[in-house]
Amino acid sequence: MIEVQELTKRYGPTTAVDALSFEVRPGAVTGFLGPNGSGKSTTMRMVMGLDKPDTGWARISGRLYGELSWPLREVGALLEARTFHPGRSARAHLAALAAGGGIARARVDEVLGVVGLSDVAGRRAGTFSLGMAQRLGIAAALLGDPEVLLFDEPVNSLDPEGVRWIRELMRSLAAEGRTVLLSSHLISEMALTADHLVVIGQGRLLADTSVRELTADGRSLEEAFFELTSGSAEYRGVTTPPFPSTPQRARGVTKPVGAERNPQ
Ligand SMILES: Nc1ncnc2c1ncn2[C@@H]1O[C@H](COP(=O)(O)OP(=O)(O)OP(=O)(O)O)[C@@H](O)[C@H]1O
């Protein structure tokens, strides 16, 4: 269980998280949604003790992160990819984490297998593609077999097979009774993966509800999301460009206009 109570974080004049309260319960995937800059990563960082709240608190299984005896065995998180030494192999990176976290060395090869990196475990992690780095970050989160898991945009840069794998992994972790908090901008993916949703905008809670309830009136999750966040998106481009589309653009020609005037 994750409990967030009246959590507030300011960076200078910006209130990134504003008196935010919600709970994430075990046995379900809870999606964490909000427009760009709405405070999702800041909230997750505070849960993981990486940022200090100005007011309020976040507890994991009843305790602040700093009070956990063996943090990696109680909570796992993927907050950003590439948080490893580029010169170390994937296996050496996980082995170092295991040694520091009081985790059996045998878990290293287990989690490498779970994320599909066994064949490249000896390769320097700095040579990994973004998708492979993301998988290594997920392996690190799973290493201590924790009850509570947080994933910030885990499907970023994964190919379709990877996206489906993440969906099934999240669902199986929840089916084992774990607490899973998952942020993603891919709403269609969230509709397939999450049971419950916490939606925020400008650091404030907009909805704390089940996917089923939010879409009960026949709306898609995307429509419900846009309606909820319409007043709080900081960045939203126009969908009809204010310039006329030229016949060239309409045909999908991407060569800059005028390029043909100076043939080489
Ligand atoms: N270290 C920092 N210093 C200053 N401002 C910050 C810092 N971290 C976050 N912010 C600001 O806090 C607000 C919330 O940012 P945050 O990254 O938590 O949002 P987010 O919902 O995760 O966004 P995105 O979906 O784009 O990843 C933004 O206005 C951001 O610019």
Automatic annotation (TrEMBL):
This protein's record includes keyword Transport: yes
Limits of the ABC transporter domain: 2-227
Gene3D superfamilies per record: P-loop containing nucleotide triphosphate hydrolases
Record flagged with keyword Transferase: no
One of the Pfam families matching this protein, by short name: ABC_tran
Region annotated Disordered, chain positions: 236-264
Family: Belongs to the ABC transporter superfamily.
Name the record gives this protein: ABC-2 type transport system ATP-binding protein
Organism: Streptomyces spectabilis
Organism lineage string: Bacteria, Bacillati, Actinomycetota, Actinomycetes, Kitasatosporales
